[in-house]
Design goal:
single chain; 480 residues; alpha/beta; Rossmann fold; 8-stranded mixed β-sheet; 15 helices; transmembrane helix; Glyco_trans_1
Length: 480
């Protein structure tokens, strides 16, 4: 018994020590990231003009979306590995991003072959629409069968080699990527950012360390980060969707600067437009009181890591002092029932069809994104901005360094209840008229950067540049 007890104590001490070292490493890595001078960092001023850039695109330290690329007269054959492809009525952000990007590239005349699975995990026929080809290669669980996908890839490649291979995050695993000569990967989230996500969730759900929380996940994050840093060089080129992620890949993951690029996500600017009349109809249809002082809205999956415990607690306190503020909740998930408990100032809409999203945004005075995931670039933020709405969002580096680069675009807060409530108070203090003016600035910013056409144009030039270095020169005579 004594030996067993001693073994248990040693094991516990070892785990505690391991966690402390992991936490210290995370702290030191964070300090290193924020103390070392930025090269990819946030835009110094709203409206910074990068159009006068003259040089090699591989040397840019800002998003390619800032540049204006001319027409491409050379057509590409691209292979794409994507986690899922939208086939149901309410696709997630990643699926909408993939469909928007690859349909836009196909519309430009490029031959696009996508290896993926249906988002509803059901059986579907492959899609062949003009230059767009989608091959469904699912295993028994509905996830991508890498062996089958690679078999189809090799068959298509044999009929004419691909110019380049693109993977959305690790849809093409790193051990498979090593078998392909030229692979570019777009990172929609990296483990360095995920560690911060686990940290925020632990602090919010278990502030006094009295209850079991995501501590185990936090302990496991550092080994996963180390593993990720080791396998990232398996990919030839790296595309980040925020300035902050690019900075991390260079300074923490130690990747060569010339292999790290920033191309921001974009949404279909023809679908997300400012339309007050549509917004007023949406309010009326869903019973928003005509005397509501401010209408706020949140959209997405109603789950913990999207920040709904944070919004629920903050709004339940805030609404007692401001009963004229109304909250629209679009999405499905376990927190939908909790929001319904908050009374008549909250309306849970359920999951909206993509065609209704623009109407939803237009019905708001301000869009709220309480996410506890400081990673990637949430499409809901830029969709709302396209509809002329200011945003209320956590002050994560990936957001304030890329999307909300000025207080003209809205409000930011630290991911805790007290800071969130303070930000909500600022929204009320500014009032609907000032929110309207902020929304106009948001619309201008979104149109200048976050459009499907700018995103597709940047990706097009990127792949041309990777295929033939003469396209890396900017500006070319055909560029605008």
């Amino acid at each position: 018994m004594g030996l067993k007890h001693q073994s248990y104590r040693n094991s516990s001490s070892s785990k505690l020590l391991c966690f402390r070292y992991s936490a210290l490493a995370l702290i030191f890595a964070s300090l290193f990231l924020f103390l070392v001078p930025f090269r990819y960092g946030p835009e110094p001023l709203f409206g910074t003009d990068h159009t006068h850039f003259n040089g090699d695109l591989r040397d840019t330290r800002f998003p390619w979306n800032h540049l204006c690329f001319g027409p491409a007269f050379e057509k590409l054959k691209l292979a794409v590995f994507s986690k899922t492809w939208p086939v149901d009525a309410a696709p997630g952000g990643m699926e909408r991003h993939a469909e928007t990007l690859y349909r836009a590239l196909a519309a430009r005349g490029h031959e696009i072959h996508i290896f993926t699975v249906p988002s509803d995990r059901k059986s579907h026929h492959d899609i062949h629409q003009g230059s767009l080809h989608v091959y469904f290669a699912a295993n028994d669980h509905g996830s991508v069968n890498c062996s089958l996908a690679f078999e189809i890839f090799n068959r298509v490649n044999a009929n004419g080699p691909f110019d380049y291979v693109h993977t959305e995050s690790v849809s093409l695993p790193h051990w498979r990527a090593k078998m392909v000569a030229n692979v570019a990967v777009t990172w929609h989230g990296i483990w360095y950012e995920i560690m911060h996500s686990k940290l925020f969730q632990e602090l919010l759900s278990n502030p006094d360390s009295l209850l079991p929380g995501p501590m185990t996940e936090l302990q496991e994050a550092m080994p996963r980060l180390l593993d990720e840093i080791r396998f990232f060089p398996s990919y030839t080129q790296h595309i980040c969707i925020s300035n902050n992620a690019a900075d991390v890949l260079v300074k923490i993951y130690q990747l060569p600067k010339r292999k790290v690029h920033v191309i921001l996500n974009g949404v279909d600017e023809t679908k997300f437009t400012h339309d007050p009349i549509v917004g007023a109809r949406f309010r009326q249809r869903h019973g928003v009181p005509g005397n509501a002082s401010i209408v706020m809205g949140v959209a997405g999956r109603l789950v913990r890591d999207k920040g709904h415990p944070l919004l629920y607690e903050a709004f339940s306190s805030f609404t007692r002092r401001h009963p004229g503020v109304f909250l629209l909740v679009a999405g499905s998930g376990p927190w939908g029932r909790r929001y319904a408990e908050l009374g008549p100032t909250v309306k849970v809409l359920g999951a909206l069809d993509p065609s209704e999203l623009s109407e939803f945004y237009n019905a708001l005075d301000v869009f709220v994104n309480p996410t506890l995931r400081p990673q990637g670039l949430d499409l809901t933020l830029i969709e709302a901005m396209h509809c002329g709405k200011p945003v209320l969002t956590p002050n994560y580096p990936s957001i304030v360094g890329t999307v909300v680069v000025s207080e003209e675009f809205g409000y930011t807060f630290s991911p805790n209840v007290e800071s969130f409530v303070e930000a909500l108070e600022l929204v009320v203090r500014d009032g609907a008229k000032k929110l309207w003016n902020k929304g106009k600035v948001c619309k201008q910013h979104a149109v200048s950067l976050f459009t499907a056409s700018k995103m597709a144009s940047a990706y097009e030039r990127f792949f041309l540049c990777m295929k033939n270095s003469r396209y890396c020169r900017y500006p070319l005579p055909t560029d605008c």
